[in-house]
Fold:
Amino acid sequence: MTEDMPLDAGARESGEFFRRIVMESADAVVAVNRDQKLVLFSPAAEKLFGYSRDEIVGKPLDTLLPHRYRSGHAAKVNEFQSNGSPARYMGDRKSHLLGLHADGTEVMLGATILTVATDDGPIMVAMLRDISERIKLQQELAHMASADPLTGQLNRRAFLESLEREWHRAIRYKTELSLLMFDLDRFKSINDTYGHDLGDQVIRGFCELVRSSLRDIDLFGRWGGEEFVAALPHTDLRSARSIAERIREALAIRRFEAIGFEAFSVTVSIGVSDIRGGRISLQQVIKDADNALYEAKNAGRNQVVIGNAAGSIRALASGTDG
Structure:
């Protein structure tokens, strides 16, 4: 633009420049007015959401949101516009938007959001991109870092991190929390007799059995080798003992098949402890369960042993493995 170019021509050229940026941007660009009606919908937005500009401009912004988010979203947009908030970026596993495609599917969106002052009031502009694949990859990587590769359950590090959060929550809200520690009995002889592939099959089968016996809120992980551990929020010692006994009985009657061998059964020893009303440390809870498990092994295996409030242990249910 030259210095002697008329102002209106310069303005037109500038407007065309920015219009082309918006229209050709790979990011979807949408804008809403103070009434939260869509006033701008770029070609990339058409591809992202499956609506044409003609059918979406003038519609409420909520049209692009999953139904469960619509009730509280208008207030957030109003606050953003009225406060003249600076640009805000969202685009990771903990901070992203969910959009709604015209076909009803949800899309994870990275977003840069800002307000633009106009003579007609503030306009909120969002530059959006589909980050569903990136979020999925991040989730898969996070799962790989926290999961035991053989069983898919939490590994020891991830279990301890989750257990610590549950322990703090139980202390804060004065709720129950119990711990179960499992050890498959005479597991070395299974590997020696039937081979490691079948040993892995036994471990996976045991994990499936335990996971099916627990609630979604319960934690379950591989402690190491043939040892496993579960944390049961909002569960007292008596209830934890009942759950442990149920798992012990279910495994004892399960039969495993091995080519060239008769079907065989596997038993498990289980130690149980709880946080004793928050009076002991998390390390002591783990130690109590471990000591109880040790006692179960020494007392003949295939039984549940519990740590009592005095710190000693007593068997609650038993049946030797022969």
Summary: The domain at 7-136 is CATH 3.30.450.20 (Beta-Lactamase). The mean pLDDT is 87. Residues 7-24 form the longest helix (18 residues).
